[in-house]
Amino acid sequence: MKQPIPRFYGVIKKGKLDIVDHEREAMGRWCRTFKDGTRVDIVIRKHSEKRTDQQNKYYWGTVVPILAEYFGHDNKEDLHNDLKLKFNPVESKIQKGSVIGGTTTKMSTTEFMASDDSYVEKICRWAATEFGIYIPPPKRVDQK
Fold first, then answer.
1. Judgement on whether residues 98 and 134 belong to the same structural domain of the protein
2. Is 50 helix (H, G, I), strand (E, B) or coil?
3. Residue 70, H or E segment
4. What is the mean pLDDT of residues 35-56?
């Protein structure tokens, strides 16, 4: 059976990797699941938080429904695809020269919503400036 790929966290301090004790212990437990002599890969990359449930609730519960109603979309997923095409375009890997809407599920919290240049912020600004649509900010929305 193929093992899942764990993720451990650390912080760079003065050019060196600092791994907190509980992470060091977890890494040790994981390493003990391999036979002696097993070669492993070690990958170090900048940490990125995936978007939060609150961000997701705001997008799907506020932004998308307001725009779906305005544009007459019966299907929120169709509107989401339109928004991805406009605000997160990527080149198709199948049809060169063609553009498709890129995935948003792998966006970090900042890329998705926590900056002035984020996906959701661009959508809200566009809706306001192009169509006069007011989308209340998350702090003004009761999200259950």
1. yes
2. strand
3. helix 64-71
4. 84
Element of type H or E holding 13? strand 11-13
Query: What average pLDDT does the segment 103-118 reach?
Result: 86
Q: Taking CA 104 as the corner, what is the angle to CA 142 and CA 117, rounded to the nearest 5 degrees? A: 75
Which residue segment(s) compose the domain that 40 sits in? 1-47
Q: Pick the range with the lowest mean pLDDT from 16-20, 49-53, 75-79, 96-100.
A: 49-53
Q: Say how many C-beta atoms besides its own lie within 10 A of residue 57's C-beta.
A: 14
Other CB atoms within 10 A of residue 58 CB: 23
Could you tell me whether strands 89-91 and 16-18 are parallel, antiparallel, or unpaired per DSSP bridges? Answer: unpaired
Same domain, 79 and 109: yes
Task: Check whether residue 103 and residue 83 sit in a common domain.
Answer: yes
Q: Are residues 116 and 58 in the same domain?
A: yes
122 and 62 both lie in a single domain = yes
